Amino acid sequence: MKGDKIIDTINSPFLRRGVGGEAKKKIAILGSTGSIGTQALEVIEEHADKFQVEVLTANSNAELLIAQAIKFKPNAVVIVDETKFKEVSETLWKYDIKTYTGTAALAQVVEMKEIDIVLTALVGYAGLLPTINAIKAKKNIALANKETLVVAGELITKLARENGVAILPIDSEHGAIFQCLVGEFQNKIEKIYLTASGGPFRGKQKSELATITKEQALKHPNWTMGAKITIDSATLMNKGFEVIEAKWLFNLKSSQIDVIVHPQSIIHSMVQFEDGSMKAQMGLPDMKLPIQYALSFPFRFSSKSKRFNFIDHPQLTFEKPDTETFFNLSLAYQALEKGGNLACVLNAANEITVQAFLNDKIKFLEIAKINQKCMQQITFIKTPAYEDYVFTDAETRKYAKSLIY
Ligand code: NAD
Ligand code: MG
Q1: 9, 76, 121, 216: which has the fewest Cβ within 10 Å?
Q2: Dihedral (C-alpha) 84, 27, 348, 364: value to the nearest 10 degrees?
């Protein structure tokens, strides 16, 4: 078993562009106003000689999108929220920046001829169609939007192979595994270990979690991220999604993917090869490193990020995840083992339950319970096509809402 989906493009002349005085790599950032999007722009600003922003998109934060566009001068921007279009277009026409609005525009803008890499930093199912279109247009993908691989990993990786594009992981764990695999693409992976911080409620019993508030759940111990992934980290859904993401990125079976809780978040993940040797990638928690590596691969560029010091971290500890209390992680393994549209169901249910929790409509422990109920109720489709994912997503959302509202 090799990471062959990534190796295929390791020697691609495309990936060498932007280095040694050649043309800059032209980047489209979907979700530029979010946590990953803004950090990606910091990376690009630090390496303005290597990268150029071609497209920026946001859901509704017009003010920040406008400020980013004026600073980075992309060719085009998309504001998905149509009520914000006037504000964006009236400001940006003076700068000769094309402006578009709506979900159809988001899905189409990735096809622009000039784009080399599409960085998917938007959140949730909304990433699926733009990613499919980008792959069909032969754009390499720097993937932060893990939900796309959770929903339709089989379809996405098949399309990537057919179109000869690379999917370069930005998620810190997958970025770590990818770094461990460079130079090892011909070698068999025995197992990978995805590290998990355990989130803000590590060590807590179910009874203590019953009255958790969203304010408590939104305080992650090691990472500052968007609201949805922060709640997913507190319920371990995020780690479950990362197990599924790893399966598709690195072509693994569920038995080859282990989760280990490592509260300090210094080891970002590990690979064990068939000779028993293990490689780990380490550093202080900082998403700018995996973002930059996904854009600079196969090269490394300089970074001003704070360096790790062993003496400041004399103890790195490890423990088993509590999959009974945080059973979203078990649900993800079940979805992975059964396959078909089950992970798509889990993702759609979770988008509804997380939003309902953030709107004070359900309690913390109900998130996983409703997710599980959706997995039991929604019609199973063994070999889904794109239309089946669309149908499954809509059906699941409707059913999950009927349990809540
Ligand atoms: P965020 O909420 O901070 O930002 C989301 C971005 O997506 C914003 O720019 C928003 O305008 C856009 N967006 C939201 N809904 C949209 C929609 N329906 N259509 C189009 N655009 C929409 O989220 P984030 O923390 O930056 O996470 C982005 C993705 O990266 C998620 O899939 C997350 O799981 C993944 N990720 C994030 C981190 C992190 O450190 N933040 C780490 C690993 C992976
Ligand atoms: Mg992660």
Answers
A1: 216
A2: -80
